[in-house]
Amino acid sequence: MDRSEPTIGAFSAVTTLFFAWGFITSLIDPLVAAVKSIFSLSNVEAQLSAFTFFIAYGLISLPAAVLVAQLRAVRSILVALALMVTACLIILLASNLAAYEGVLAGLFVLASGITILQVAANPLAAALGPPGRSHFRLTFSQAFNSLGTVLGPLLGASLLLRGLERPAGATLGQAARAAALGSINTSFLIIAALIAALGGFIWSMRKRIEAAAPTVAMAKGIGATLGEALSSRWALIGGAAIFLYVGAEVAIGSQMALFLHDESVWGIPIQRAGYFVSLYWLGAMIGRFAGSGLLIVVRAHRLLVVAAAIAAALCLYVFLIGGVEAGYAALSIGLFNSIMFPTIFTLTLERSSASEEATSGFLCTAIVGGAFLPLLAGAISDAHGYVASFAVPMLCYVLLCGFGVAAGRAAVRRQKDERAVATIH
């Protein structure tokens, strides 16, 4: 057998994981809109779904790195998938009991599994093949991740937002509530079955993956890794930038369906609004391909400044003008979000005085911004409306412009090693 065959097969198997976690993560957006109606929640209470999901990144990323070093990739991936199936069963039980707290618990377990999955799969996607083509492999895997984020809201809107229309101020009827909880059951039963099938596929490919996977060095302890990252000024700056970026992206995406449904914007049915959320993520997928080409001729920090400035301007337009055009402006922000995560990640790696492992682990932990900033946006939505909540991501993008300018002025300590660049969000 050609030596390249195990590597190609292993890479193909790992790429399916990228699609899976993109698909599942993007289901959070329609889920926020669904639980708001089902449980008669405020925007802040509904955003607890996103909070519970993304808080797992802050708590699990560094322990996951230690786990992967001890178990190696395949066993870690299987543990992650088993956790994800368990999470789906918890959500099924909670929906049958009509217990929102149980849904939140299930989402935390689900996100914990996804975090482990990402920590295990990211190095594989970069390393499974010739080093000179690591950029292609990351882009290719990220494209499948983006495809998952486009398809997830479509399924979510179809299943989770059906029958949730009601007059402003009215509560959902008992029959409609029962049907909506049944839709959550159906959605997560399908997801559990797909994850279990994916686990079987990874198990069948385990020998190819293990044969092609690079040797993983034993990780430092959690405390030592965190301490090293905290000693680096640029690791801290980069962590703050990741916190702001993910917080802004999730604050917009998780409220997008409710924003478009609002009478002051498009006023369309909530299920139809949910379908439009996929356009937000489609922009990110298109932008990643275009951004890869632009990064060949444009320096990363400059492209980041331009993208963040345009995103801030779009948020400002929504905030000041509102109306039908604001809906189109909000959806187009996804296009400019596309290059932010990888450019922030690599700009930080190039400038951090901490090791790549410690810096990467800390940056993954900073994804917890997706837990906190959407809560702030939700509180503003409750008090002043969805249009006003765009002040939160607008401020984040302005600060990211500052990060890009500072990165352009800072000394580069190491050249970018594309194998270390995570494709996480």
- Reading the helices and strands in chain order gives HHHHHHHHHHHHHHHHH
Report the uncertain regions.
417-424
How much beta, percentage-wise? under 5%
Radius of gyration: 21 Å
Q: Which structural class best describes the helix and strand composition? A: mainly alpha
Mean pLDDT: 86
Helix fraction? over 70%
Count of DSSP E strands? Answer: 0
Number of helices: 17
End-to-end gap = 36 Å
Characterize the biggest β-sheet: none
Protein topology:
Blueprint: H1 4-26, H2 28-38, H3 43-71, H4 73-96, H5 100-127, H6 134-160, H7 174-204, H8 206-212, H9 222-230, H10 233-261, H11 270-297, H12 300-320, H13 323-337, H14 340-351, H15 356-365, H16 369-384, H17 391-409
Tag the structure with descriptive keywords:
single chain, mainly alpha, disordered C terminus
Describe what you observe in this structure.
This protein is mainly α and 425 residues long. It has 17 helices and no strands. Helix 1 (4-26) runs parallel beside helix 6 (134-160). It is globular. Residues 417-424 have low confidence and may be disordered.
Question: Short summary of the structure?
Answer:
With 425 residues, the chain is an all-alpha fold. It is built from 17 helices and no strands.
